[in-house]
TrEMBL record:
Mn(2+) 1 binds at H122, H124, E128, H171. It comes from the Eukaryota. One of its GO terms (molecular function) is metal ion binding. Its cofactor is Mn(2+). It comes from Leucocoprinus birnbaumii. Transmembrane segments: none annotated. Keywords: Manganese, Metal-binding, Signal. Mn(2+) 2 binds at H310, H312, E317. InterPro entries: Bicupin_oxalate_deCO2ase/Oxase (IPR017774), Cupin_1 (IPR006045), GPI/OXD (IPR051610), RmlC-like_jellyroll (IPR014710), RmlC_Cupin_sf (IPR011051). Coiled coil: none annotated. Binds 2 manganese ions per subunit. Residues 79-226, 265-355 form the Cupin type-1 domain. Residues 1-21 form the signal peptide. This is Cupin type-1 domain-containing protein.
Length: 355
């Protein structure tokens, strides 16, 4: 893969189910119970309490390959272990440096919206990159600077598509009713300490601003009644009607936008590049100009195939498993190496200059 030098790299992996067998983990399974055995090493039958379902998903930790050695910080986080924030319109869960301390430069949120539900207008002090897992969404963003200074942008994205919001640009997200379940997506932020609960939200701001100040700001003073319905606390994710089919009806103030600098990218429509063991699609600032700090490679690997030995000298890699099972080995020089097993919904984080 050749990527224009981004600050960060995201890899989305789908492992196909085919006739070829994937590399077998070294751990043994006897009578459906995983064993800490590798040839003459280890001992069968764990005698104390143990979590069999967890061990079955981590056989290469229970019984590592002989090539594993030394110390490698944990580089795996299953989203299934993240705390989920529930709302009337959907839910969200996150992975940041608190859950995965090795992830110094990137954090992520997995979010689900019911049909019509809205992630209210908000903004961050980090860039936001997104990938649609299921369903369709309507996004809107106000660009206070850059090539589209002063314009509002509204667009639809579908499964497999991307969006990118630079730090400080206010934006909102709404699920369409393309699927009866709504939509689900990934958000990735270019700072490991990012916390979804520390986001700047519009209703949170208005709820903590005196009505008299709002009335003066919007030109209704001394009349404050127009602001009586402002929520007393942040709405965050809330239910609503599905947006109109015509995007232009949601564009309150029509304006021109630079066609070379849009905030969405139809990765789902890009033809993949074929290799003997799978395919790859790439989106970086060459073909997705707005995405200045984050590039993505959507990789499909055939069962038994592999992404060849490689490393990124200056960019960290955040990997998410879309489907199938995989395993990743990291080598950090000085005989330090570790192998982990991954399942759908798992995150892997590889710091720069680690093989």
């Amino acid at each position: 893969m050749i990527l224009r030098a981004p600050t960060h790299l995201i890899v989305l992996v789908a492992v196909s189910i085919g006739a070829k067998a994937a590399p077998a983990p070294t751990g043994q399974v006897t009578d459906s119970v995983p064993q800490s055995v590798r040839g003459d090493y280890g001992a069968p039958s764990l005698l104390g309490p143990h979590n069999v379902p967890m061990e079955e998903q981590n056989l290469d930790l229970l019984s590592p390959p002989a090539t594993d050695h030394g110390k490698i910080d944990n580089f795996k986080w299953p989203f299934a272990l993240s705390h989920t924030r529930l709302t009337t319109g959907g839910w969200a869960r996150q992975q940041n440096e608190k859950q995965l301390p090795i992830a110094k430069d990137l954090a992520a949120v997995n979010m689900r919206l019911k049909p019509g539900a809205i992630r209210e207008m908000h903004w961050h002090n980090t860039d936001e990159w997104a990938y649609v897992l299921k369903g369709s969404l309507r996004i809107s963003v106000i660009a206070p600077g850059g090539l589209n200074e002063g314009v509002s942008y509204v667009a639809d994205v579908n499964e497999g598509d991307l969006w990118y919001f630079p730090a400080g640009d206010p934006h909102s997200i709404q699920a369409k009713d393309t699927l009866p379940e709504g939509a689900e997506f990934l958000l990735v932020f270019d700072r490991g300490t990012f916390d979804e609960n520390d986001t700047f939200s519009l209703t949170d701001w208005l709820a903590h601003t005196p009505k008299e100040v709002l009335a003066k700001n919007f030109g209704t003073y001394p009349e404050t009644a127009p602001f009586d319905q402002i929520p007393e606390e942040e709405l965050y994710i809330f239910p609503s009607n599905s947006p109109p089919e015509d995007v232009n009806k949601d564009l309150i103030v029509p304006n021109d936008i630079d066609p070379e600098y849009t905030f969405t990218y139809p990765l789902s429509k890009i033809k993949p590049t074929n290799f003997p063991g799978g395919t790859v699609k790439i989106a970086d600032s060459r073909n997705f100009v707005a995405s200045k700090n984050i590039a993505v490679a959507e990789v499909s690997v055939e069962a038994g195939g592999m992404r060849e030995l490689h490393w990124h000298p200056i960019q960290p890699e955040w990997t998410f498993i879309l489907s199938g099972n995989a395993r990743i080995t990291l080598f950090a020089s000085q005989s330090n190496a570790a192998t982990y097993d991954f399942f759908p919904g798992d995150v892997a984080y590889i710091p720069p200059f680690i093989w």
